[in-house]
Amino acid sequence: MEKLTDVKYIKTLMREHGTEFKKRFGQNFLVNDSVLEDIAENADEGVLEIGPGIGSLTQKLCERAKKVAALEIDSELIPILNKTLAEYDNVSIINLDVMKTDIPELIKENFGNMSVSVCANLPYYITTPVIMLLLECGVKFSNITVMIQKEVAARLCALPGSADYGAITASVAYYAKAKRLFNVSSGNFVPAPKVDSSVVRLDLYKEPPVSCHDSDFLFKIIAAAFAQRRKTLVNALSSGLSISKEEAVNAIKSVGLDENIRGERLSIAEFAELCHEIKGKK
Question: Is-contact 237 215, C-beta < 8 A?
Answer without folding.
Answer: no
